[in-house]
Amino acid sequence: MANDLITLEIQDGxxxxxxxxxxKHNAANDEMDRQLxxxxxxxxxxxxxxxxxxxxEGRSFSSGRxxxxxxxxxxxxxxxxFIERGHRRTQLFFSCPVPIVAALKGWVIGGSFERxxxxxxxxxxxxTKMMLPEIKHGVIPDSGGTARLFxxxxxxxVADLAMTCRAMDAEEALRHGVVSxxxxxDQLEETALEVCQQIAANPPFAVKxxxxxxxxxxxxxxxxxxxxESMGMTAIYETDDYAEMKSARAEERDxxxxxx
Length: 260
Known about the structure:
Strand content: 15-25%
Distance between the termini: 46 Å
Oligomer: single chain
CATH superfamily of the domain at 6-185: 2-enoyl-CoA Hydratase, Chain A, domain 1
Structural class: alpha/beta
CATH architecture of the domain at 6-185: Alpha-Beta Complex
Helix content: 40-55%
Number of strands: 9
CATH class of the domain at 6-185: Alpha Beta
Number of helices: 9
Largest sheet: 6 strands, mixed
Shape: globular
CATH topology of the domain at 6-185: 2-enoyl-CoA Hydratase, Chain A, domain 1
């Protein structure tokens, strides 16, 4: 269907979860997020699955949040309530009953990049580029992904990517352990599916117990970080600098920040 911004297909115990807004490089809007979390809830309710393959239709996995919707509210809800609701849904990545393998290509930006960092494994095509551009847009990364990146690559890389907002290519990501494999662009889909098939062929209870062990190590930091991010984002939305950033963009001028 034309309005399926997220699709879910089941194939031999593999749930193939697809970002399906290719004309926008799979930029996430509110409806796409709603469908993503709905698909994750469906995955949680099934007993016939062994692994999730998360991919993107078109040229990019996802170019991140649709910037035209940053800070936009279609309902009467506080900033804190809005952020906390998103974080409650994000817990579905932590509680997923089976491993999630993300197949990255093209642009993987912002919140979408952070969410792939909450997956169990990332495989990238050679031309993939990853970014955390939130600060450039007057906000901060707030999906728990920076904690995962810190665990993988340390303080220096997180600070570099978040505060310069620069792009990181696939080879650099491989060196830092952010992705486990880099493959030619035309081999990404095949390789990612093969990895999922290998996982699906293993004893499912053993896979689940090993993933549980990893989760006990990794999840507490990410979940604690999200609590801090909620407060940070709530404060940012009330600042003069955030209002100035939005005004400057609307008026097509350079912003004049005052640090308040």
